[in-house]
Amino acid sequence: MFNPAGLSVKIKYSDGSYGDEVAYGTANADQFTFNPTLDTALKTSDEKVTVTYAEKTADIKIKVNKKTPVVPENPTVEKLRLKQIRLRQSIKKAIN
């Protein structure tokens, strides 16, 4: 999902002037729209998010990385024993 935290927009008018910078937040979230919507999971094929504010749109280029699963370590008795020995050694060093 796209997270708009920290997003701010500044509208450029046809005469070349700019409006005030507006930061996205809870107070004005209803004035912004996003495509894909904020509750849509992004896919690796998604390349942009379109933001609309005050009837003006802008595309934000994005890159969605493939989710890498975290594989928990499978502790063995030998690994736990080694950790226990290292812990004892560091405690002895701290005491001495």
Quick structural summary:
The chain is 20% helix and 21% strand.
Distance between the first and last residues' Cα: 52 Å
Q: So how many helices? A: 1
| Number of E-state strands | 5
Percentage of residues assigned to helices: 10-25%
Shape: elongated
Q: Please trace the helix and strand order, writing H or E for each element.
A: EEEEEH
- Compute the CA-based radius of gyration: 25 Å
The major β-sheet equals:
3 strands, antiparallel
Low-confidence stretches: none
Structural class: alpha+beta
Can you list the strand order of the major beta sheet? 3-4-5
Mean pLDDT score: 90
Strand content: 15-25%
Question: What key attributes describe this structure?
Answer:
96 residues; alpha+beta; three-stranded antiparallel sheet; two-stranded antiparallel sheet; 1 helix; 5 strands; 20% helix; elongated
Describe the structure.
The protein has 96 residues and is α+β, with helices and mostly antiparallel strands. The chain is built from 1 helix and 5 strands; from the N terminus they run βββββα. A hairpin with a 2-residue loop joins strand 4 and strand 5. The longest helix has 19 residues. 1% of the residues are buried. The model has no long low-confidence stretch (mean pLDDT 90).
